[in-house]
Amino acid sequence: MSKYFTNIYDTVNTLWTGMRITFRHMMNIKKDNVTLQYPEERWPRPERDIGFELEDYNVIRTRLHVDIDDCIGCFRCEKACPVDCIKIDTIKAGRGEDIPEVAHTGETSNGTKKGFVVSRFTIDMSECCYCNLCTYPCPEECIFMVGGPHSSKHPIDYEFSEVDRNDLIYQFAKKLTPKQRNDLQQPKEKAKA
Amino acid sequence: MTIDFIINQFTEIIGNFPVAAFLVACASVGGLLFVLMALNAMVAVYVERKVSAFMMDRLGPMGQGPGLHAGKWGILQTFADAIKLLIKEDTIPKSADQILFKVAPFIIFIGAIIGLSALPFSSSIQAVDLNVGVFYIIAAGSIGVIGIVMAGWASNNKWSLYGAMRSAAQIISYEIPAGLSIIVPIMMSGTMNLQNLIEYQSGSIFGIFPNWIMFQNPFAFLAFFIFFISAVAETNRTPFDIPEAESELVAGWMTEYSGFRWAVFFLSEYANMFVVSGLAVAGFMGGWLSPIPGFLNSPVLGLFWFFGKVSFLIFVMMWFRWTFPRLRVDQLMYVCWKVFIPIAMLNIFGVGIWKLIFG
Ligand code: SF4
Ligand code: SF4
Q1: Top-level class of domain A54-192
Q2: Which of A143, B119, B286, B288 is 20 to 30 A distant from A39 in Cα terms?
Q3: The pTM is what?
Q4: Is this complex scored with an ipTM above 0.85?
Q5: Residue A146 C-alpha to ligand 1 middle, in angstroms?
Q6: How buried is residue A124: exposed, middle or buried, by Cβ count under 10 Å (0-12/13-18/19+)?
């Protein structure tokens, strides 16, 4: 008989303990919360310590980036790509000439004079196999994998999932309106004629 | 505001058409009760998700609502859920009993809504003021079990049938302690009319404490807990959710249901919570009386106090749900037959003695 009552007492007591704990957690949710609202909040990225100097570690493969102002439109990266996911179009322009209407600078940061306006530079990152082969032939070192040795030029970026597959085709060239495109092509035809 | 009142108004304004008056009154009151039921489910589901999340150190729904995914508490989550449920496909298994399968959700729904119709929301707002209100609500609560057994049987699915059987066993068992402990307030007040029962609780103990039945003597205090816990068991909520135990029975008697019919089950579950909490509030916690004796009592504020107390009890039910593990079937029966029923009987005895000695 006494066991019966101790049982009841223990039950009530332990249940009450449990209820106190859950209530405390509910009240302290601001402090205890473990959920991260992902796209708005992220965990801080840990410091990289890979045992190398970043400068020496040259094989990091994250995603490609092109500094379009430095690109001379030489097509070497396009030719190097084994899966042909780089597509480049160029329009001939005066060598070393600035064309302010389309924000085209005549010289790269290395001082090379550009002969072309790059009117299209797309990399389909859904096809890219991250072989890094396109970055070696570039004479201006303007196509590179972000982060790593290039982190001074572009921060590392490993969250590049998209809702629409077409958004994975990265557009690096400056947007040209049809009229600007026409104007750029005009002088060439005049010279021919 | 009772049905009688609406019928009288109708007769006065439009004329003496008893059938039309009756239909109009029933439809309008029923519509209001349905709105209450839907709102209750909407709010309660949202609060339940938030409470459960907070108790587990999560955040719960955050995406839906103003400022989509900008950390604005997902206020519209239940609206999104409701829309999703309404546009879902309504599947009926080929081998199910077609008629029973379709009827079952509505029987459960009827059980919930007619219980709601006798609740005293305030001194003047009540759908029907019955002189056997307590008895009526307890009886209406049992209609649901017919629907549950029907749903379980008609689904032609072993999980559903198990769930229905367990539910029937559980509800029938727990109705006994619930009934025995609701006798305590009836004995003390000498009435089964919910309004009179609440009026009996007006006044104060020692001038400060509210004169609620649960505070009037120790037996009534115990009876309140037995009633409330049995009520939780009757609504099939955790820790008494063996009829729909996810880990064992998929979803119990709701396994085969989807879309709107499933939504009706859900609506009824939350309405049932409201009804049993309402009965506990009316029977033990002074109904629409203010918790501070004689302070801020009026028909309109009564509405506020009633809903406040009911919300508190519903919150306690959620608190139970997210704290306790599920009981085993034998433990469930042990608690009912060996703990609650003897104590409830002793309570009746004790209250009788108390009445004799202290009046
Ligand atoms: S990394 Fe390789 S696959 Fe990707 S664009 Fe460069 S060459 Fe092509
Ligand atoms: S190799 Fe370099 S400079 Fe040449 S087109 Fe590619 S990105 Fe431009």
Answers
A1: alpha beta
A2: A143
A3: 0.75
A4: no
A5: 13
A6: middle
